[in-house]
Amino acid sequence: MLPRQYVEELSCVLDDCPPMPMSRVKRFVEEDLNTPLHCIFREFSENPIGSATIAQVHSAVTCSGQYVAVKIQNIQNKKIMRFDVLNMLFVSRLLDRLQVFLPFDHTNILLEYSAQVEI
């Protein structure tokens, strides 16, 4: 629906962001769960599986041996996230004006998201 150069430029909007340092990740998890990391996880990957504007994901093994993915909101990227949402809303509203209809209500989804997620 959009020219290739726009698609290529926007393809990095939500992924491929620099990850938070492990010290910050550890602090956020421990503060959120009110427990030291080593009391919850037997293993916790230093490097995230993925890092995006919204969050990053680490693989971990709980003390009971269950393999899990731990998603941590990437607070350091709030400015980037705000910029991304505003850009997506701009494109979404442009599609509305051009009467390009998708099988879902993209503009209201973005408006709802931006109202519920603190950015």
Written description of the protein model:
With 119 residues, the protein is of the alpha+beta class. The protein has 2 domains: 49 residues, no CATH class; 54 residues, no CATH class. It is built from 5 helices and 4 strands; from the N terminus they run αααββββαα. Strands 1, 2, 3 and 4 form a 4-stranded antiparallel beta sheet that branches. α4 runs antiparallel to α5. The longest helix is centred in the last third of the chain and has 20 residues. The model has no long low-confidence stretch (mean pLDDT 85).
pLDDT average, as an integer? 85
Distance between the termini: 28 Å
Number of helices: 5
Principal-axis shape equals elongated
Radius of gyration: 18 Å
Helix content bin: 40-55%
Low-confidence stretches: none
Strand percentage, roughly?
A: 15-25%
For the structure shown, list the relevant keywords.
2 domains; 119 residues; elongated; alpha+beta; 45% helix; four-stranded antiparallel beta sheet
Condensed summary:
The chain is α+β, with helices and mostly antiparallel strands and 119 residues long. It has 2 domains: 4-13 and 78-116, no CATH class; 22-75, no CATH class.
Helices and strands in order:
Blueprint: H1 4-10, H2 22-33, H3 37-40, E1 41-44, E2 50-51, E3 55-62, E4 67-73, H4 78-97, H5 106-116
Antiparallel strand pairs: 1-3, 2-3, 3-4
